Amino acid sequence: MRSPKDFFRPLAIGAPDPVREIPFRPSRMIHFFDPSNPKMVAKVPDLAPKVDILLGNLEDAVAAEHKEAARAGLVEVGRSWDPSGGTQLWTRVNALDSPWVLDDLTTLVAEIGDRLDVVMLPKVEGAEDIHYADRLLAQLEARAGLQRPLLLHAILETARGVANVEEICLASPRMQGLSLGPADLAADRRMKTTRVGGGHPGYLVREDPPDGDVDASRATAQQDLWHYTVARMVDACGVAGILPFYGPFGDIKDTVACEDQFRNAYLLGCVGAWSLHPVQIGIAKQVFSPEPAEVAWAKRVVEAMGDGTGAVMLDGKMQDDATYKQCQVVLDLARSLAERDPDLAREYDL
Ligand SMILES: CC(=O)SCCNC(=O)CCNC(=O)[C@H](O)C(C)(C)COP(=O)(O)OP(=O)(O)OC[C@H]1O[C@@H](n2cnc3c(N)ncnc32)[C@H](O)[C@@H]1OP(=O)(O)O
Ligand SMILES: O=CC(=O)O
Ligand SMILES: [Mg+2]
After folding, report:
1. What is the mean pLDDT of residues 76-100?
2. Where, by residue number, does substrate bind (predicted)?
3. Does 198 contact ligand 2 (Cβ within 6 A)?
């Protein structure tokens, strides 16, 4: 194990210094596109200003015969990318055991390393995966003469990854965040759902039988299959000072259930989710931006609490040091979103 004193030292001579803190930038949606698909690439100029993060996906959902074209397509997008708009450019590279990942990393860092913000790594199982990518990126950054380190984002999508989630988050100063990968995770855990995220009608609780009559009709409510993992992920990210995201919701037509899944993640502490189709961009934008009424309430609490200590009553509700901090979380998020979004700035009146 390396000495903690070495944690913030570059892993290759000439590589940029690792970041000390993960910058919080608006990250409500990570919009996936396939850079080998000309129709999707044609939409990039229009989509880029509408999303917080645009991600060129090279892994699953890109057919094996299109892997090289996807990599080359992302290089083209990166070369004409204008970072001054504030949108982040990310990529999801192929898995570390795949035949493509080495070329993905070497090509992307050399060609567009100065445009990319974050590299998403799929199927991360433990700290050893992050250590490998960390060293390789440092070598590639040094060779490319990059001034700023690329950050790493891991997808939590194997049982082993979930079991090792804390060590993954703490494995490198490059770690920017985690996403839940419910599809691969379901397969790896042998869960019996064939859906990409979302609930399942079979996973429910049923009310007790009235007067012991087990044949009577009884109300049921679907439960959230992902609650445990999202909560675990949020805590692990909190420990490491990095950002948790919900991942994909595959039922593109069911925008209502998508919104519910995103909102559960938002309330539990996630900063954003993936959008797989343009229709999901607006859902994520709305859900992961605090409601104006919530922001107004947070402002009232902070004002009423003065220096943030003691207890006061506001509309019949007790406020103290802890609720002051809860309200600061909402206000900090609102302020950072308002800086990027003039409509929200007006609605929040900040
Ligand atoms: C489990 C996981 O790993 S999830 C992450 C990996 N999966 C992905 O990245 C999937 C990304 N999304 C997609 O591939 C597509 O959205 C699909 C296959 C789900 C649906 O695609 P389509 O059937 O073409 O959807 P639809 O007909 O509604 O598309 C409307 C238009 O939006 C475009 N479009 C669809 N998705 C996207 C996207 N993610 N980004 C940009 N444009 C898109 C289509 O090309 C189409 O363009 P056109 O009007 O010029 O013909
Ligand atoms: O990559 C995402 C997943 O759900 O699997
Ligand atoms: Mg996956």
Report:
1. 97
2. 92, 157
3. no
Does 92 count as an annotated binding residue? yes
String of DSSP letters for 269-328? T--BEEESSTHHHHHHHHHTS--HHHHHHHHHHHHHHTTT-S-EEETTEEE-HHHHHHHH
Q: In this predicted structure, what is the pLDDT of residue 31?
A: 98
pLDDT digits (tens, 9 = 90+) for 19-61: 999 999 999 999 999 999 999 999 999 999 999 999 999 999 9
Picking from 131, 129, 145, the residue whose alpha carbon sits closest to that of residue 6 is 131
pLDDT in the model for residue 156: 98
Pocket lining: 277 vs ligand 1, CB cutoff 6 Å:
yes
The finding on whether 182 has its CB within 6 A of some atom of ligand 2 is yes
pLDDT tens sequence across 203-217: 999 999 999 999 999
Nearest Cα residue to atom 1 of ligand 2 = 181
Q: For ligand 2, what atom is nearest to the CA of residue 60?
A: 1
**Percent of residues, the chain, with pLDDT higher than 70:** 100
Please work out whether the CB of residue 199 comes within 6 Å of at least one atom of ligand 2: no
d(CA 344, CA 347): 5
Q: Is the ipTM of this complex over 0.95?
A: yes
For atom 3 of ligand 2, the residue with the nearest CA is: 181
CA-closest residue to ligand 1 atom 7: 61
Residue 247 Cα to ligand 2 midpoint, Å, equals: 7
Task: Quickly list H helices, the chain.
Answer: 38-47, 67-79, 101-112, 127-144, 159-163, 165-169, 182-189, 227-240, 255-268, 279-287, 292-305, 321-340, 342-348
Q: What's the 157 CA to ligand 3 centre distance in angstroms?
A: 6
Backbone angles phi, psi at 185, to 5 degrees: -65, -40
Bridge partners (DSSP) of residue 273 are 29
Q: Which residues pair with 85 in a beta bridge?
A: none
Distance from residue 252's CA to the centre of ligand 1 (Å): 9
CA distance 265 to 271: 8
- Residue 109 one-letter amino acid: V
Distance 185 CA to ligand 3 centre (A): 7
pLDDT, residue 2, reads 78
Which three-class secondary structure state does DSSP give residue 92? strand
